[in-house]
Write a structure and sequence with these properties.
alpha+beta; single chain; eight-stranded mixed β-sheet; PH-domain like; about 30% strand; four-stranded mixed β-sheet; about 220 residues; about 30% helix; 5 helices
Length: about 220
């Protein structure tokens, strides 16, 4: 009887401590924990660098709304901007690296060049998000084959865990995130496909190899 009472009191004590902790959480801290839970579900045990990312709080955004060009703000007016981060975009054909911004609103993702919107992906049409299992910051946003889209979007992000988590939560498509090994296929446009190869080397680099593939080291 004493053991049953002790176990019952222990459970009540734990429940009260959990309730006290939860009630003491700020709204910002709750958002952090919700995001980290999604990051764990997507990346834990799958991608290098995940464990190191645990101690790094996600920022609400990497750039403020007023850091965007006024012309871009005018083009996406009516949409609430949720997250902005600098990225490197690789052309789908020649794989030339270009500095861009990734802007996430409540309904769409935008790839932005200065005052221009280079590509818009509505979350409702998003087909998937791919990353490698290595420690690179590459992510591929897969889009549908239609006349509105030029092809899948190849990006390199400094904070890839944060960016992918924000994107899949806003799009409500956590299940569509894939962590791949070795290589992945991406759509170039007009029914064509390209291949990206992931490998390990002495220093990080991204280049077009002799076979025409995008190689990520």
């Amino acid at each position: 009887f004493l053991m049953q009472t002790s176990e019952m009191l222990r459970k009540i004590c734990i429940r009260n401590l959990v309730r006290k902790y939860c009630r003491g959480l700020t709204a910002e801290r709750k958002v952090q924990l919700q995001q980290k839970v999604v990051t764990s579900a997507v990346f834990s045990g799958k991608k290098e660098g995940y464990l190191e990312s645990l101690s790094q709080p996600f920022l609400e955004t990497r750039l403020k709304e007023n850091d965007l060009n006024p012309k871009v703000l005018q083009l996406i007016r009516g949409e609430i901007i949720k997250y902005v981060t600098p990225v490197i975009k690789y052309d789908r054909n020649g794989f030339k690296a270009r500095e861009r911004l990734l802007v996430l609103t409540q309904s769409s993702a935008y790839v932005v060049e200065m005052a221009k919107i280079k590509q818009k992906i509505e979350y409702a049409t998003l087909k998937g998000i791919s990353t490698s299992n290595l420690s690179d910051g590459i992510m591929v946003i897969h889009v549908p084959e239609d006349n509105k889209q030029k092809g899948d979007v190849i990006l390199q992000c400094e904070h890839v865990f944060e960016t992918v988590t924000k994107l899949c939560m806003l799009a409500n498509k956590q299940s569509l995130v894939k962590v791949v090994k070795g290589s992945l296929r991406f759509r170039v446009g007009s029914g064509k496909e390209g291949t990206m190869v992931f490998t390990v080397g002495p220093e990080p680099q991204v280049f077009k190899d002799k076979t025409g593939q995008l190689t990520v080291v």
